[in-house]
Amino acid sequence: MVAKFVSPYRMAGKSGKNDANNAQAICEAVRRPHMRFVTVKDENQQAMQCLHRTRQGFIEEKTATYNRLRGLISEFSVIAPQSTDALRHMFSEQKSFLPLQVQQYVHDLLVHIDRIEDNITEYDRFCPAWQKQITAVSD
């Protein structure tokens, strides 16, 4: 059951949300003939969801790393463009304006981004193949 369908059956006068009140609300909701239930995902669906969540995490990490990189070099009066390719090009041209340590830190972040992009590419290759396999099994 979806939680939003159970919440109307929780007693408003009671002390709010706790395990006992939630259990009572679930029991009350289950007895209703109009109640809709969520289907249980099979292992393939759960695995695909895991793959998508992991890939999305890599994308968010890549964005966060680029933003961190922009913030670090902006403290040295180097304004970084939004485009990731332009940022790499700009860094290769203007790295002489940064202290040697900062150049190393920026290089490390760019290497980290390369690894993240490799992971994303690997997941992109894996997704369509898996989709075909699932479709073939379900047909």
UniProtKB/TrEMBL annotation:
GO terms for biological process: DNA transposition. GO terms for molecular function: DNA binding; transposase activity. Pfam families: DEDD_Tnp_IS110 (PF01548). Residues 14-75 form the Transposase IS110-like N-terminal domain. Signal peptide: none annotated. InterPro entries: Transp_IS110-like_N, Transpos_IS110. This is Transposase family protein. It comes from Escherichia coli 2-460-02_S1_C1. The lineage of its organism: Bacteria, Pseudomonadati, Pseudomonadota, Gammaproteobacteria, Enterobacterales.
